[in-house]
Design brief:
Chain A is α/β, with parallel strands linked by helices. Chain A has twelve helices and nine strands. Chain A has two domains: about 140 residues, Aspartate/ornithine carbamoyltransferase (Rossmann fold, 3-Layer(aba) Sandwich), CATH 3.40.50.1370; about 150 residues, Rossmann fold. Chain B is globular. Chain B has a five-stranded parallel beta sheet. In chain B, helix 2 links the parallel strand 2 and strand 3. The longest helix of chain B has 16 residues. The chains are: A alpha/beta, B alpha/beta.
C-alpha cells in the first residue's frame, strides 16, 4: 500500500486511505520522536530543498526538523536573499536547483496554484507548504492527527472553523480533510470573511453567531485574522472583532460542555483568541506544533517511497 | 512442503525458551525484544513459555519495528508498525527474536534501531528458521529452531494460528 499521489499538493487530491496512511505512519514517527535518539536514517541520500517564497516560522522549522530527523540532506531557500529578487522566474529557479540533483521540493508561495504549476513541469516530488489562499495540506493533516489523538476518531466529530475563512488555506484544507474523514464541519465568523458560495459548494454549515457555533461543536479551530491578505477593511476594528467573534473565557464558560481549542498559529492574542483560552488546559495548540514534525516526517517518508529506484 | 509441523512447533518453542534460560539464568539483566511485524508471533509464544518457568515480573518484553532503519526505501515502501519498548536497554542483554533469518539485512537494521534506545551490553539473536546459505551479511543466530542446510529456491512461510489459522512452517514456490 502506498499513496495514490506522487506530490502532496492539496488534501483535495487525497483519498480517505491516503489520509489514514499518513496519520497512522505519523503515529509511528511520533514514537520515534520520544526515543533517546530521535534521528532515524530513513531518508539518507535524499536531498530536499525548502523553497519559501513567503514568510514562515513554524512551518519552515517544522519541515526542516522533520527532514533532519529523517537524515535527509536539506537546502533552504528564502526569497528575500535569492535570485528571485533579481527577476528569475519560479520555473527557472526550480530547474536550476533540480539540476543539482534534488529529490524533493517543499514549497510555500503567495500565489494560489504555484505548486500545481510546478508539478506539471518538473519530475521531483512537491510538497505544498501553503499556496496563497488555496491549501495548506500538512497543516490540515497535523490538525486531524491532533484531534484524533485527543478525541479518538474523526468520523462523527463536530468541528467549527472560526474566523477569517475567506483568506485561509488552513480552512480549505481542513474542510476537505474533515469531510473526507466523515466529520461534520461548520464555519463561523463575520459574513465579510466567509465566501458566500462555501456552504453550497462544500456542503458544510455556516453560522454567523459565534456563541451558537461554540455550543454546537466538539472542537473549535480558531484561525488567525490575516491582515496582510486584506486589501480593504472587512471589519471595523480589531477590538470590535474581538468583542463580536473573539474566543474569550466568558464565551466558553457559558457552554454546558468543554470543547477542544485549536489554532494553527501565529496567534493574535486578544484578537481572535484571548490568552486565558489559548493557554488553558482545553487548548491543544502546542500539541499541534509538536505533532507537526511527526506528520511531516510521515508525508516525506511516504512520498520518497513513491519515487522510482535510483 | 512442510519444514516444521504443527506437532513439532510447540517443542521447538519450549526448547528455545529453555536454551535462553540456560544461557541467561532467571533472565537476570536480560530483556526480550520481538521484531515487528512477524517476529512478534514467535516472541509472544516464547515469552508465554518463559512465564511457565519464571515469575511474570522477571520477563521484560518489548516490540521493535525496524522499518525506518531499512536500506531499501527507494526499492520498496514498507509500512511501519508499532514500536513498544517501555524500558531501558542501557547495559542490558537484549535477546532479539525474529521468525526467519534470511539475508541478515533485517537484523542489521534492528541493531541500528536498538542503538537509538541506548547501549546494550550484549545483543543475542533467537530465530525459528535459519536460512544459513542465503546470508548476505556476517550475522549469525545464537538460538535456532531449525537450520536449513541447503540454499533453497523456496520462500519460507511461517504460519501462526492467531494470524494464518494454522501453526507450521512451509516452503512455498516463490
Amino acid at each position: 500500500m502506498a499513496l495514490t499521489t506522487k506530490h502532496l499538493l492539496g488534501i483535495k487530491d487525497l483519498t480517505q486511505e491516503d489520509i489514514q496512511l499518513i496519520l497512522s505512519t505519523a503515529t509511528q514517527f511520533k514514537e520515534v520522536l520520544q526515543r533517546p535518539v530521535k534521528k532515524v536514517p530513513t531518508l539518507r541520500d535524499v536531498t530536499i530543498v525548502n523553497l519559501f517564497y513567503e514568510n514562515s516560522t513554524r512551518t519552515r522549522i517544522s519541515f526542516e526538523l522533520a527532514e533532519k530527523r529523517l537524515s535527509a540532506d536539506v537546502v533552504n531557500f528564502t526569497v528575500s536573499n535569492s535570485s528571485a529578487a533579481k527577476g528569475e522566474t519560479l520555473l527557472d529557479t526550480v530547474n536550476n536547483i533540480l539540476s543539482m540533483k534534488v529529490d524533493m521540493v517543499v514549497m510555500r508561495h503567495s500565489a494560489s496554484g504555484a505548486p500545481h504549476y510546478l508539478a506539471k513541469h518538473i519530475d521531483a516530488a512537491i510538497i505544498n507548504a501553503g499556496d496563497g489562499i488555496n491549501e495548506h495540506p500538512t497543516q490540515a493533516l497535523l490538525d486531524a492527527f491532533s484531534m484524533q489523538e485527543k478525541l479518538g476518531q474523526l468520523a462523527g466529530l463536530k468541528v467549527a472553523i472560526i474566523g477569517d475563512i475567506m483568506h485561509s488555506r488552513v480552512a480549505l484544507s481542513n474542510i476537505y480533510l474533515l469531510k473526507k474523514m466523515g466529520a461534520e464541519v461548520m464555519v463561523s465568523g463575520p459574513p465579510t470573511l466567509i465566501p458566500t458560495y462555501l456552504q453550497e459548494a462544500m456542503d458544510i454549515k455556516v453560522e454567523y453567531n459565534i456563541d451558537k457555533a461554540l455550543a454546537w461543536c466538539d472542537v473549535a479551530n480558531v484561525l488567525r485574522i490575516q491582515l496582510e491578505r486584506q486589501n480593504q477593511p472587512l471589519f471595523s476594528s480589531l477590538r470590535e472583532y474581538n468583542m463580536a467573534y473573539g474566543i474569550t473565557k466568558q464565551r466558553l464558560d457559558k457552554l454546558s460542555k468543554d470543547i477542544v481549542i485549536m489554532h494553527p498559529g501565529p496567534i493574535n492574542r486578544g484578537v481572535e483568541i484571548d490568552s486565558d483560552v489559548a493557554d488553558s488546559a482545553h487548548s491543544i495548540i502546542l500539541d499541534q506544533v509538536e505533532n507537526g514534525v511527526a506528520v511531516r516526517m510521515s508525508c516525506l517518508y511516504l512520498l520518497t517511497g513513491r519515487t522510482n529506484p535510483a | 512442503m512442510t519444514l516444521i509441523s504443527e506437532q513439532q512447533l510447540p517443542s521447538i518453542i519450549k526448547r528455545l525458551a529453555h536454551q535462553i534460560l540456560e544461557t541467561y539464568p532467571g533472565l537476570t539483566n536480560a530483556v526480550i525484544v520481538g521484531l515487528q511485524p512477524r517476529g512478534i508471533f514467535l516472541s509472544d509464544r516464547i515469552v508465554a513459555a518463559l512465564h511457565q518457568e519464571l515469575p511474570a515480573d522477571q520477563v521484560v518484553y518489548g516490540k521493535l519495528d525496524i522499518t525506518f532503519y531499512r536500506d531499501d526505501i527507494r526499492r520498496e515502501l514498507h509500512l511501519a508498525t508499532q514500536t513498544d519498548l517501555p524500558f531501558s536497554i542501557e547495559g542490558k542483554t537484549v535477546i532479539l527474536i525474529d521468525d526467519v533469518l534470511f539475508t541478515g539485512r533485517t537484523i542489521r537494521a534492528a541493531l541500528d534501531a536498538l542503538l537509538a534506545f541506548g547501549r546494550p551490553s550484549k545483543v543475542s539473536l533467537c530465530v525459528l528458521v535459519d536460512r544459513k546459505p542465503s546470508r548476505e551479511l556476517p550475522i549469525q543466530p545464537d538460538f535456532t529452531g531449525k537450520e536449513m542446510i541447503d540454499a533453497s529456491p523456496y520462500k519460507v512461510k511461517v504460519r501462526w494460528k492467531e494470524n494464518d489459522g494454522v501453526d507450521d512452517v512451509i516452503l512455498l514456490v516463490d
